């Protein structure tokens, strides 16, 4: 029952009528303060706004003599009843702390817009029309308005603009997911969708809202939030009232930023801009944590503005891939070692401040680089490698000195690098000078003490060069400090003997065999040269290790077929050498360093062909398997670098054919055969290189990937043979159908990542092969969907059957997943393939993703016209495509776009065009008058002129009339002029669509 609506029957004493809140404002406070007020706060807002006629569209010019009594403040066209009810609604919203979550769930979209518009108008002191008045224009604020309050109102509105689009998409998805399970009602479905145009109309202003919110984040002034006391209700003795905007409270900047960054993150996730979403969610997390530290728990009051929930924020962090704290310096150190010491100097400099890496790890790093340079690695410039070694030593010395310990190690380093002593001391001064101001006062003192020791020990030997170092890097030790220190040194009276005057004392390091072995093992893990591996294996073998050397690094993985050959080998050099080189080759392949991986496998193959190993059958099998592994790496390189052709394509094709033939021969003779991954890669490469005849082999059920390649090959040859006049064999069709069956007891699942179809799609590169596979999936999709309005079109669909027995056994979601997977892979290598772009648009269209569908349709047309440099002509587009684009535009609220597209039919569809133009929100949704220059049909322009006349839009009518008067649109022109005029306007319209959907 509507408790607020006055009735003619007697009411109980507990019933409160709406005007009682006006007579006694304290009643509203008392009612809202109840534990569970009935009606609730949101119900009150709905009731107040429902009883106040909408003032956004109709703003009658009421004179003072109006019997209803109008509000006479500047620009506010509310009568007394309207103003009173709107102020009450705003008071309730302020009591709710402007919580958009609650408002969006319980208040319909039109009333949400009305509430926000009333807030903007009352804070501005004059009528504000949304969404046209979007910026804080000083001219919008009247004498009764408030700048900071209007800024608050606009900020709330722009937040709502982003949230409304996200919530609308969530509701649509929720309704679709429940469509197969009955009319399930949830809280979200109360978000009213009957006026979707009001949401779609927000899309053109979305970027403006984002810019405004970013500007609010940068504002230096404090952000003030309107409170319950800010709104003063009208009483029976006054026609107007002054709102108490000065009672707004200022909130912490971190609270405002946390809320705005949260809303921006929601929107960017919705539009799939994941980098921007991640940036904003990290800023939200940072400000939310600061807000909790500064505010929460201190005042005992609820938050004034921010409604971010910690659990929801954590969910968004996980959605954006932020799973924990950033990698520590120790983790970055290990990654740098694996990447050939990239950024190692920056990591050590940062660690000199943060002190996260243990000194044992830094010392091992120093020894590692020393050993890396000692074995003569050819991976880089020797001079640069030596400079890197000295830089690491210098940074370690600085860390030792600031720790106040292990100064002995510093002196050992100075003696160890005696030949490079000037360069080492210069590095010490340079790195200490660069970071000196970042060190604590205690660390600066320790550093100065150590440098005084350096001056004492080596200042005399270096002479003027030392003074040049001090003069260049003067933060640690200034030139004056150097002079004072030297002047204060006391001369020894004791006469020292000759041995005491020697300066070549060497303090030996303690020899630890375990450390030396560990150093060699680390070098073995990091090196990428087969020669270096050979030398290190010999050195480590001399230490009599208790376990095989290939177990040093657990990350070295070996394919199972190779493992079956390597494990039975006699333990020794060949076993270790083979396992390590194969493991390193797989690591390098994963890092896309194909050349080095092939080199390692080639060296291993040559090793198996040494004369002394010729009689060992296991070694012969190992050599053959290694050659196949090298072929696999070559194929992976070709697929990764596509469309770049391999250097020796003829030899590569020959090797692939021999590999496939060896599998056939091994099947007959039980001989050694390549494993399935190699065979499938060989078949896929031959398929991509159009080596069709090589794939016409007897199908082997053990290798479904090869069998599938063979079936697709047969389909292509049938196209060539029959010239598209009849359907071909059903081998590929029958192979793929079982992959989309619903397993018993399961309603929904995903394609397994190791299925033959998924693996083959990842390896396809040849356009014709991809088109054949897409046609098969598209045909199957149409059969299972069985809806004429949801059909998708692809090339070569005539190849496949037009029906399937018992369609309920198949899962159409799996077919759609495979289709999307194949299309994404295809468009990655051929982004301008027009049939594929149209097919992708069809797939998005039948999934009701109209904006995405429109983007792909427009991309296809843009590519077909060579980026609008040639005229748009058939068969690039047809009536089927245009009708779908019209449907997309209509569903997106772009009705004038749909009307313009109606001209693209063979015969202009005036009925559909006139209906689109007549939509109520068309003048607000897609800038109606900006499309007049794209219309060439005079009948359509005449209808628009008449429509504006009926609406009283004089300025727009004159604008439309000016376009009718253009000479090239004269009905008496010849056909050539008319065609040229239409072609120019088509390209103009296409460019505008490209700016909207592609940019």
From TrEMBL:
Q: Where is the INTS8 TPR repeats domain?
A: 515-997
Q: Pfam families, from UniProt?
A: TPR_INTS8 (PF25756)
Question: Which terms are listed as keywords in the entry?
Answer: Chromosome, Nucleus
- Compartments in which it is found: Chromosome; Nucleus
Q: InterPro entries this protein is in? A: INTS8, TPR_INTS8
Provide the family line: Belongs to the Integrator subunit 8 family.
Kindly give the PANTHER family that the UniProt entry links to this protein. Answer: INTEGRATOR COMPLEX SUBUNIT 8
Under what name is this protein listed?
A: INTS8 TPR repeats domain-containing protein
Q: Which organism is it from?
A: Anopheles stephensi
